[in-house]
Amino acid sequence: MKIFRVNMSNLRTTIEDVPEEWNLLGGRALTSTIVSKEVDPTCHPLGSKNKLVFAPGLLTGTMAANSGRLSVGAKSPLTGGIKESNVGGTASQRLAKLGIKALIIEGMPADDKFYCLHVHKDGVNIKEETELLGKGNYEVINTILERYTENTGVITIGQAGEYKISCANISVKDPKGHIRSAGRGGLGAVMGSKRIKFITLDDNDGSGIDINDKDEFRKAARIFNKGLLNHPVSGDALPRYGTNVLVNILNEAGGLPTKNFRMGRFEGADNISGETMYENIMSRKGDTTHGCHVGCIIRCSQTYNDKDGNYLTSGFEYETIWGFGAGCMVDDLDLIAQADHLCDDVGLDTIEMSVTMQTAMEAGIIPFGDGPGILKLLNEVKEGTPLGRILGNGADFTGKAFAVTRVATVKGQGIPAYDPRSVKGIGITYTTTPMGADHTAGYAVATNILKVGGHVDPLQKEGQIELSRNLQIATAALDSAGLCIFVAFAVIDDESVSHAIIDMINAQYGINWTVDDWFNLGRYVLRTELDFNKAAGFTKKDDRLPEFFNEPIPPHNATWDFSDAELDQVFQM
Amino acid sequence: MQVKVKLFASLRDGRFKEEMTDVQDNSKVIDIIEKYNIPAETVAVSFVNGRSTENDYPLQNGDTVSLFPPVGGC
Question: What pTM, to 2 d.p., does this model score?
Answer without folding.
Answer: 0.98
